[in-house]
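Sample entry follows:

:::
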Amino acid sequence: MSFSLTEYAYYIIQGIIALLVMASQQFHVLHNYLLYLEVFNGSSLVETKKFDDTASIGSSENTSLKSGNTAQAGGSKVQYAEVPALVEQPLTVVKPIQASLGLDTSVRQPAGLEKTNAFDDMMTFALADDNKYLQLHDQIWTSSFNAKIEKILTNVVDVISNKVFFRVDHVVQGGSVRKEVAIAGVTNTEVVFFMQFMPHEGHHKWLPPLLNAAANVLNTNLDKSRLGVEDIQVTEDTVQLRIDGIVIVDLRFSPLFDSYRAVVGALSRQGPKVHPYFRATLVKQRIQFIAKQQENVKVTMRLLKWWRDQQEWSSASCRPSDDLIELLTVHSAIQSKPQDQQVAVTNVLGLMSRFDELTVTWSNFYKKTEIWEPLLNQRPLVMDPVNPFLNVADPQVFDFRELMAHASQTRFFW
C-alpha cells in the first residue's frame, strides 16, 4: 500500500494531536495525585497559600452591616442590605512541574492585593461612624417616650370629644407620633375631628369662628392641671394645645367626604387660599404614605429631625417642617438606596444643600397630570404626595436659604 505525501502529512498531524491529548491527561492525573498526597499524607509537594488581607472584612463583628443581620434602633429592627463577604481563595502551585520548566515557583500577591491595612481601616471607620448614628437614634427614639405621648393624646381626645358642641363623626390622630417618626423633646402632633353636617367649601368663612368657639369651650371646661395643658391658642387653621412642655397638639376640623376623589374634586373647585385647609381632610392618606415606609427610612427621618433641632433658625418660616424632612428622606431613599445611616443622612443633606433646584413629584395617589398647573413652575417644588394642590416647599411660605446654608456648612455631628 502506498501513500501520497499529503496523506503522510495528515497522519503525522493526527499522531501529534493524540500525543498532546495524552500528555494533558497525564498532567491532570499527576496534579490530582499530588493534591491527594498533601491532604492525606501531609506531603509538601503542593503548596497552598491563602491571602488573609480580607479576613477582617468577611468576619466583621459590626452588627449593623454583617451579612443577614439587623441593627437594633429604639426597639425596632433596622434591616440593611447584605454586604457580601470576600471569600478566601487558595492559590495552588505545583512545585515539581513549575521547577522542571525553569519557572519562578514563588507565590506573589496579585496587583492591588498587596499586604496593606488601608482598606480594612477604611471599613472600620465606616462601621464605627454608622454605629454613632444608630446609637444617637436609640437616644432620641424610645418606646417609653412614644407610650407617654400616646397616653397624653388619648386623654386629650377623650376629654375634648365629650366637651365640644358639634357632631363628631370620628377622630383621627396624625402627626409624627402616628407616623412613627417622632423624636424625644418637644413633639408636634395633630388630632383631626371629622364633623357631620359641615359644608365642603368655604372653609375660610366657617372655620375661623369655629376655632374660636372651640378654644373658648376648652378654656372653660378642660381640667388643665390634670391633663397637663399649659396653654391654648388659636392659629390660622387650628386650636393649639401645649401639654407638659413636650407635646404641641394641633386640633383640626374637617367636613366629611365620601372618598379621596371627592376631596380632590372639592379642591379643584376652590381657589389657592382655601387649599391649605384641606390638610386636615387628607390626614389618613398622609399617615399611610409615611407609615408604610421601611424602618431604616424612618430612622433617617428621626435623625434628620434631630439635626434640624440642633440648628439655629431666624424665624419659624425658615425652619423646615416635619413634612418636608420626611418627604426629602423618602425621595432620597428611592433615588439612592443607601446601605447605611451615614450614607442616608449625607444624601439628604446633599439634597438640602441644593434645595433651590429640587423638583419632587409622586404618583401614589394622583397622576402628574392632576397637579395644579401653577405649581409646576415653582422652584423648589416638593409636592405633597396626597394633595395635588400643595407644594410643601412653597417659597412664599418657606424661606429655604437658611436650610441650604446649614446643610452645606455644618456637619451632622459637631
In short: The first helix runs from residue 5 to 41.
